[in-house]
Design a protein that fits this description.
The protein is mostly helical and about 300 residues long. It is built from eleven helices and no strands. α4 (about 85-115) runs antiparallel to α7 (about 145-160) and α6 (about 125-140) runs parallel beside α9.
């Protein structure tokens, strides 16, 4: 309750810093991991592997989009309900977010695995790049549930007033990924499959971490079986609020798809690898802004619900 009370009573500037800085740190570490990951893959497998991962980006961004759709949509609603002191309804929204995440993730995995070959051909993969992309994407799709779950629940952790725990979740996944990547690639000689497996294991660890958090006394929101049932109106509200960040990410996916296709048409596979590296570096610039906005969201949502519009 003390963490929740901060959102209403603490000085705004101090509150914004305490929520945004952990979010920025967590996102920056994730962005740095993506660069380190490219280094491991580039040196351990080769330029074609970086091309394969870049070709897979549009599909991976779609997974991210659904994580934001549920995570941001549910977090905004939960923050508002907490501000309104309607905590029982906040927990129902939380339960709906969990079930919605599981259903959408499983569907994405099934659809992705069934249509993986035509999707990769559509994205422009061929020859050795196709083989590498298929190996990488198969494992990533299998890990879609823990990846989406960790992303959505991390946002909710921040929304209930615990930004440091949300940061710890992101750091856990990034550090574990950074440690496992060179082990799988260089020691076990697993190539691009090793990089994907490192991502799957690290995301699974983050998912277990957030699940244990919500089952502990540290969490304000609790996982209750009675709330793990979809409610039409709550699902609609989550999807409506989350539709904006979802649309932005889908737009990014389309841009990446078009860029890859045009580069493959007028350039070569090495040029696509360059685009992937540049994209990873650009994320370093974007992440602080995203961290600031994600840190502000629970503060704004809670006080909106509490009718403290000033």
């Amino acid at each position: 309750m003390e963490k929740i009370g901060r959102l209403e009573n603490e000085k705004i500037s101090k509150l914004l810093l305490s929520f945004s800085i952990p979010a920025i740190i967590g996102m920056m570490i994730n962005a740095l991991y993506n660069i380190v990951d490219r280094i491991f893959v580039g040196h351990g497998v080769g330029a074609e592997a970086i091309t394969a991962i870049t070709v897979c980006f549009p599909v991976m961004i779609v997974g991210l989009a659904f994580g934001l759709l549920i995570g941001i949509g549910a977090t905004a609603l939960i923050s508002i309900r907490m501000g309104e002191k309607r905590e029982e309804e906040a927990e129902k929204i939380f339960g709906n977010a969990i079930i919605l995440t599981i259903i959408i993730s499983v569907l994405l995995t099934i659809i992705g695995l069934i249509f993986l070959n035509p999707i990769l051909y559509l994205l422009g993969a061929k020859g050795e790049v196709f083989i590498l992309a298929k190996k990488f994407m198969t494992i990533i799709l299998i890990g879609m549930l823990p990846q989406t779950f960790a992303m959505a629940m991390n946002s909710i952790i921040r929304g209930e007033g615990n930004p440091k725990m949300a940061m710890a979740t992101m750091i856990l996944g990034a550090l574990l990924n950074t440690v496992l990547n060179p082990i799988f690639i260089f020691v076990f000689k697993m190539g691009i499959s090793g990089s994907a497996l490192a991502t799957l294991i690290s995301m699974s660890a983050s998912s277990v971490w957030v699940w244990c958090y919500f089952r502990s006394k540290k969490s304000h929101l609790k996982i209750k079986r009675k709330n793990l049932v979809l409610n039409k109106n709550m699902v609609k509200s989550i999807l409506m609020i989350g539709s904006s960040p979802f649309a932005v990410q889908i737009g990014s996916s389309v841009i990446m798809f078009i860029s890859n296709k045009q580069i493959l048409k007028y350039g070569n596979e090495s040029d696509v690898a360059v685009l992937g590296i540049v994209f990873s570096v650009i994320m370093l610039v974007i992440m602080p802004v995203l961290g600031l906005s994600q840190g502000a969201q629970p503060i704004i949502g809670y006080n909106y619900g509490a009718k403290k519009f000033d």
